[in-house]
Amino acid sequence: MRKMILAGALTAIVAAGASGAAGAGSCEPSLMLSGLSSPVGVVERSDGSLVISNIAGDITVIDAEGRRTDIDGVLRQPAPGIVVTPDDRVFVQDDGGSSLFELVDDTTLEPVAEAFSRPVDLAVAPDGSLRVGSWGGGTLDRVCID
């Protein structure tokens, strides 16, 4: 991942403890992954695996051993809204559509809720439910998950 700093330079960033970390309490910037299709959201699960939503319409999963899986053709345009729950469930929304999906077995996206108007943001609430912000409708919805 890269972040823009005020001077306008691009800096690679990496989480502490991940590949490229310089040691306890410090973190040297390093490139973690390249060749993505315009990533707009990323979450890291407790095992160190990553799930990335790409604006080009796919989801990329990098498992804890570094194996890559791309899930294509389900989402029209993933939104930045991607979350991981405390029990490592991953949810992503489709800004190009109107649905919220759960990633199952790192290979399948299953619909959880529909009828949002351009959902773009997602959060996990303290009670475990999800909050869905929809740009098109100017709404914030609560979605209960089992």
UniProtKB/TrEMBL annotation:
Residues of the signal peptide: 1-24
Keyword Signal: yes
SUPFAM superfamilies per UniProt: Calcium-dependent phosphotriesterase (SSF63829)
Keywords: Signal
Superkingdom classification of source: Bacteria
Name listed for the protein in its UniProt record: NHL repeat-containing protein
